[in-house]
Amino acid sequence: MSHVVRILVLIASAVIALFKFLHLHRWRVKIHYPPGPKGFPIIGNLLDIPTSFQWNTYSEWAKKYGDLIHINVLGVHLIIINSEDIANELIEKRSSNYNDRPEITVMTMGMLDRMQSIPFDSVKYHMAQDTAVQSWVCELLQRNATKGEEVVPEAVIKALGASTFAEAQKRAQAEIDEVIGNKRLPTFDDRMSLPYCVPHSTVVDDIYNGYLIPKGSIVIMNQWAMWRDQRVYDVLDEFRPERFLNVYGTLNNMFPPTFGFGRRACVGKSMADASTWIALVSMLSVFHITKAKDAAGNDIEVPESYGDGIVR
Fold it and tell me: Per-residue DSSP letters for 51-91?
């Protein structure tokens, strides 16, 4: 009798397992991945991803497939987000599912440890060979020791783009002069009076607007597309700081996606924001920055170009 019961239990367990498998399979078949370019067998969309300036390609895909795109690269699911609204919905509101990091297998096999010693290996080799190698760092330190330090490094001025956007500089300086005057430098107390994002990975399966985002997907937020969203920002190619001001002349509630989203947003965003603000306002309060002149006395135009890479 016990033998018969054991067989019945095994049959019942097998039926339940088969039912769950078929139900899960049917559920996954009914729910499709987000739209995206069709790939090839095995390699998927490997050939569709450019080796540089990927954000431009992702932005073009958004015009055809929408703001949420799915591609497959060698069996790995990639989810590309081109909209700030979708990023907030997924990365912010569902942050517990999107705070994981994609695993890079090669890095876990000792490459990171090896990378740490590469700079020192070269120095040790040349010391052993008794060959003189010019030290770029030492040269820079000696050069700065013999000449005076710049009051404001040229690199900082270029980074802030003050010489490129002369009209915006004039407006900011006029506001600074009106609020602060010429008797002191700005402080953080003046800020209210002067109003002028690395991939994530999903922990479990997720559903968004009827689309399946599989567990383990690499989620890429295309901030280039978010910053150039014509539904949010008009006249994309013009520098307009006033777009972040409301009708009352104070900062609006727009929070730019620069520092990322969710639990893995940049922890130093407040410090970066504050230090950039105080540097910019302090320089504009005492300096008027213009373009350099060539031999003929004409302005040297600053070319608008973008580099390729990831800032972490």
Answer: SS-HHHHHHHHHHHH-SEEEEEETTEEEEEE--HHHHIIII
Residue 53 belongs to a domain: no
pLDDT at 312: 46
DSSP string, 179-234: HH-SSS---GGGGGG------EE-SS-EEETTEEE-TT-EEEE-HHHHHT-TTT-S
Phi, psi of 154 (to 5 degrees): -60, -35
What are the structure tokens assigned to 310, written together?
A: 């990831």
Q: Please count the CA atoms within 13 angstroms of the CA of 115 that sit on its side-chain side.
A: 7
| Parent domain of 11 | 1-30
Q: Domains in the chain: how many in total? A: 2
- Amino acid symbol at 276: T
> Higher-confidence residue: 195 or 245?
245
11 assigned to some structural domain: yes
Q: What do you get for the CA distance between the two ends of the chain, in Å?
A: 67
Q: Given this model, what pLDDT does residue 30 score? A: 65
pLDDT tens-digit profile of 44-53?
A: 998 898 877 8
Q: pTM, whole model, 2 decimals?
A: 0.60
37 contact partners, CB below 8 Å, separation of at least 6: 45, 48, 61, 65, 71
